[in-house]
Known about the structure:
197 residues; Aspartate Aminotransferase, domain 1; four-stranded antiparallel beta sheet; globular
Amino acid sequence: MSTFSFHANxxxxxxxxxxxxxxxxxxxxxxxxxxxxxxTPEEPYVHRILGxxxxxxxxxxxxxxxxxxxxxxxVAARLRVSERYxxxxxxxCSGPACAPWARRxxxxxxxxxxxxxxxxxxxxxxxxxxxxxxxALDRQPVLAHVSGNFPVAHAIAGAAxxxxxxxxxxxxxxxxxxxxxxxxxxxxxPGEALSHA
Length: 197
């Protein structure tokens, strides 16, 4: 099964929501039940399983279809922003690997910085919507029962942050953000060099 988020900050958006796809007929039937209160069209108001109301409206679907038709342009616009960050932040590493059969895309440009909280605070003080990435999954209360040692996940979750990455971000704004990232990293003190995650 593949899942897709259509949240407002995604390249293809319907404002909120998402979709799932599968080539497994049984799984597809279960998903259809789940999104429609556990009912089938053949037996309305008979709940075969405990479902929810996850149906997408036709209006929202039309917005999504319009976005999908612009896929190449939307992805290219975000890649332009990401590549510009790489140019303006020259101490960055080469970036994420991409399989030979795949094409790179960018949701949010991610960097790792020393003393991330201080860097994020400095950027927000300059009017830049920088955000720390999510905590490692085993640090989420719902997964508190998971045991194990995940040093890489913890290191990334503690140092990585997102920079504004929407397709219409103007070059002068990207320049402004990059300058403030460099200044913030310099000012907060010693640590690892800036790198793109």
